[in-house]
Specification:
Elements lengths: L5 H6 L5 H4 L11 H10 L5 H12 L6 H8 L4 H19 L2 E9 L27 H14 L3 E5 L8 H13 L1 E3 L6 E3 L2 E5 L5 H9 L5 E2 L7 H7 L8 H5 L1 H7 L5 E4 L7 H19 L5 E3 L10 H5 L6 H14 L4 E4 L5 H7 L6 E3 L31 H10 L3 E3 L3 H4 L4 H9 L3 H19 L3 H19 L2 H6 L1 H13 L8
Helix pairs in contact: 3-5, 4-6, 5-13, 5-15, 6-15, 6-20, 7-8, 8-9, 13-15, 17-21, 20-21, 20-23
Bound molecules: S-adenosylmethionine and iron/sulfur cluster.
């Protein structure tokens, strides 16, 4: 833990040389005028051009800014129906028929920043502040494991009391927990910890890498630098470029699995979609790989934040569906995360336009999983959640729609990260491994945690998947069928955490 005061600590966070090294002729990769002119020049795109863009995206190539701008300008609802279908087809081609699940774990809400949309900002006196100690982190982890989760994303405010040493300690604490499943049949543990934390310098990012994280995630919030300055008046977060290059630094620190996002509702969604594309392209240009996932959280009501209630840029449900579709086509290899900020009905619908990851049973109050239920009250959490269904309920709903849930965490443990996974995603090979791991982890979930209703419908999904594997030449020729059969039987006999 840092011995500096919060004020002194804040002043030494940003390292200018770790921004400047990525600039080209002193400029970053977001040029507002260029984005605005691309949106203007691509108004009224004709159908044949849009269909050629669909073909390009279906061949898993990142779109150009002009092509994305053309999609943003589509008005014809019939073309939109085609785009939704293509979006789903791309998802199936790259990621097959599965949704990966995770849970967020909020570890601390002390923060030196003053983001106008967030309940954790330092000047919000309504917020009760807490930094969980390691015993509390373990209790939270046990409660999450008890739901059946295997993946976490740990979330922190930016503060000397939750600095890099605290963050790495919490990650170790999470990984150390093992717990018998409630029915006593199996045992559970968290096998992948992803991190959503403030931008760091390369030295701290190396420590994060050493702690064995999955993905490092930072949302730019808005790519419009003037608006950014207005929304982030003080603290390290007020430095737009420090945040803009946080994932470039992650790559340089050896974290080759990173995630981007924008907070939709702060600005015109069209501009932010373009910003996300330019961000992906710049990462591809520098490092040859793009983001593992893109997130599109919508602004939710946060305590003491009038902006979170009244923003004139709130994104409608219809536009959310459109922007997800555009992202799916624009960066076809990337994962797309649909969080429990959204309402259940909307999630059930939107998941079909190309999303790959969801959370469920989520609680975002500090200590809320293991402690009082009333920690879900608005004054004690960052913002209000839309979907409070249990993991079991959401898995059952997906199973009814023929979708398999995956708790696969094999990728980073088998070295399938960075350029290796990117190439496999682009060649649509990664989905083939994940299909097997989805079957194995779904089987574990059904055996250990599912309710009788979920088990019943889940078994049908499992059988369909196994049939599809048995008739697929890739699995037959590679000999993977024997291996998956062996693992499946061993899981039936009580072994856990077998992956391919
Ligand atoms: N403090 C770190 C940071 O800001 O990068 C990480 C934690 S912060 C709680 C995680 C994300 O929550 C932010 O990047 C922001 O996009 C999102 N967020 C903040 N306020 C929100 C709100 N009112 N509704 C929805 N999402 C919000
Ligand atoms: Fe702090 Fe992150 Fe909330 Fe901003 S968004 S106030 S940095 S926790």
């Amino acid at each position: 833990m840092s011995k500096l005061s919060a004020m002194e600590w804040s002043k030494q966070v940003v390292k200018q040389d770790e921004i400047d090294k990525y600039l080209v002729n002193g400029k970053d990769f977001i040029n507002k005028e260029e984005i605005m002119s691309k949106l203007k020049n691509n108004e009224n795109p004709d159908k044949s051009y849009i269909r050629s863009i669909m073909d390009k995206a279906l061949s898993i190539h990142t779109l150009t800014p002009d092509e994305t701008a053309a999609l943003i300008n589509v008005k014809d609802e019939e073309i939109w129906e085609e785009l939704y279908e293509v979006s789903n087809n791309i998802k199936r081609k790259v990621y097959d028929n599965r949704i990966v699940f995770f849970a967020p774990l909020y570890c601390s809400n002390l923060c030196v920043n003053s983001c106008k949309y967030c309940g954790f900002r330092k000047d919000n006196s309504e917020e009760k502040r807490r930094v969980l100690n390691m015993d509390e982190i373990k209790e939270e982890t046990k409660a999450i494991i008890n739901e059946g989760h295997k993946r976490l994303i740990v979330v922190y405010g930016e503060h000397p009391l939750s600095d890099i040493d605290y963050i790495t300690d919490t990650i170790k604490a999470v990984y150390s927990v093992e717990k018998k499943s409630p029915n006593g049949k199996g045992k559970g543990n968290i096998r992948r910890v992803n991190v959503n934390a403030a931008p760091m310098d390369i030295k701290d990012l190396r420590k994060l890498k050493k702690a064995g994280i999955g993905t490092f995630q930072v949302f730019q919030e808005t790519y419009d630098r003037n608006l950014y300055a207005n929304l982030h008046p003080s603290g390290p977060k007020s430095d737009y470029r420090w945040r803009l290059y946080s994932l470039h630094r992650a790559m340089d620190a050896g974290i080759d699995d990173f995630a981007i996002g924008a907070l939709f509702g702060l600005n015109d969604w069209r501009f932010e979609v373009m910003g996300l594309l330019y961000h992906s392209l710049d990462l591809e240009r520098h490092f040859g790989i793009g983001p593992h996932t893109i997130s599109f959280p919508r602004l939710n009501f946060a305590s003491g934040s009038p902006l979170s209630k009244n923003s004139k840029y709130k994104v409608s449900d219809e536009n959310l569906k459109k922007l997800i579709t555009i992202l799916r086509l624009s960066v076809p290899y990337t994962g797309l995360i649909l969080t429990a900020r959204e309402q259940p009905d909307l999630r059930d619908d939107i998941i079909k336009v190309g999303c790959t990851q969801m959370d469920a049973s989520s609680k975002i109050g500090i200590g809320a999983y293991s402690q009082n239920k009333d920690l879900q009250e608005e004054e004690k959490q960052q913002f209000m959640l839309g979907d409070t269904r249990s993991l079991d309920e959401v898995i059952r709903k997906l199973a009814n729609d023929g979708i398999i849930t995956s708790f696969c965490t094999a990728g980073y443990r088998c070295g399938r990260t960075g350029d290796k996974i990117m190439d496999m995603l682009r060649d649509c090979k990664e989905g083939k491994f994940c299909k097997l791991n989805a079957v194995l982890t779904y089987k574990e979930y059904l055996d250990d945690y599912a309710s009788p209703e979920t088990k019943e419908i889940g078994k049908k999904v499992l059988l369909n998947e196994i049939e599809a594997i048995k008739s697929n030449p890739f699995y037959i020729n590679s000999g993977l069928i024997e291996k998956v059969n062996d693992y499946y039987n061993r899981i039936s006999n009580g072994e856990r955490d077998l992956f391919i």
